[in-house]
């Protein structure tokens, strides 16, 4: 979810603190031959483990892992050093891209990291394997509030990776607003026409319109979704562009005044431009959780579970969270963080903010189809582009039917 250029500046004033701690941990390894940490830990041998000849395929959001940049820990490389299991690491940009890739097949992923509602959808469509938690003892470090979530109520298919909330980043020199009374209405304010950025994915974009209308983000009433689409179409003439990672360059270079985005990226954006500020709007917002799962196509389930367990280890999870900036579901990790982060409400919001937040859940198929149709109307200009919309819809339906047929054939073969 982050750009490499932006990440190079994040937490620069805390790099010596992290480097000292990692150096101390390494010294302990050399002297004792084992890692000492809170909770269950992953063995850290002095010498690299011999190769197992196994490579696992990990599919994650872009720039969403500590990779060795700027003195950080390369967690994939460290996993290989400790276990002898190689990691083939690739990225996706949206949950929908992940789902399409899994549906079409062709690549056997071993670990994927979808968001909450997508985890629910994958479970419903029998696309995830149940986890063997005897191979994931570090799950005991996950806080109770993140266990048995609505999207995985029996907690058989997923382990939380990170979480956070969505808010508005705004340029204090360009936007006139009371920082204690920020509203989603700002993104519809004609004073900032041409200076507003908007999410380039349907679920996040619709949630903002739904918050303004006082709707649940998980409504199944078609009238609610149509009303939210009308709001987004009213907003469209004011929108400079629909973006995801591009937000960093645009907001950092004063090319836009307002943008909704994930709070976990706040350190990067505020480091890029000291004139930027962040606020969670008073109407409420989305609280999201990204979780680690194993798809049904995985050929290396035990190794994948070893990877998930490794990512929950306190030392590893701390290094990872320090680098990517998102919130941890492990109190033992939060205790290791710099107080500047651990006590910052942008990363760890107050109960008042969380009480006004809602997690996305998987929607019924007919609601998802309506959402996709309405999003196309928003992006293509509504009724003025009816012919183009119909063509795109037909294409989407054909792809959807193809995926359904493929899944049924594959399921039949597996049963045979």
Explain briefly what this protein structure is.
The protein has helices at 4-7, 15-32, 75-83, 95-104, 116-124, 202-213, 222-235, 247-252, 266-272, 301-312, 314-324, 331-334, 339-342, 351-355, 365-380, 386-415; strands at residues 55-61, 86-92, 111-112, 159-171, 196-199, 239-243, 258-262, 276-279, 285-292, 357-358. The protein has 416 residues and is an alpha/beta fold. The strands form three sheets. Strands 4, 7, 8, 9 and 10 form a five-stranded mixed beta sheet that branches. A three-stranded parallel beta sheet has the order 2-1-3. A two-stranded parallel ribbon has the order 5-6.
What does this structure look like?
- It contains 16 helices and ten strands.
- Strands 4, 7, 8, 9 and 10 form a five-stranded mixed sheet that branches. Strands 2-1-3 form a three-stranded parallel sheet. The protein has a two-stranded parallel sheet with strand order 5-6.
- The radius of gyration is 22 Å and the shape is globular.
- Helix content is 41%, strand content 14%.
- Strand 1, helix 3 and strand 2 form a beta-alpha-beta unit.
- With 416 residues, the chain is an alpha/beta fold.
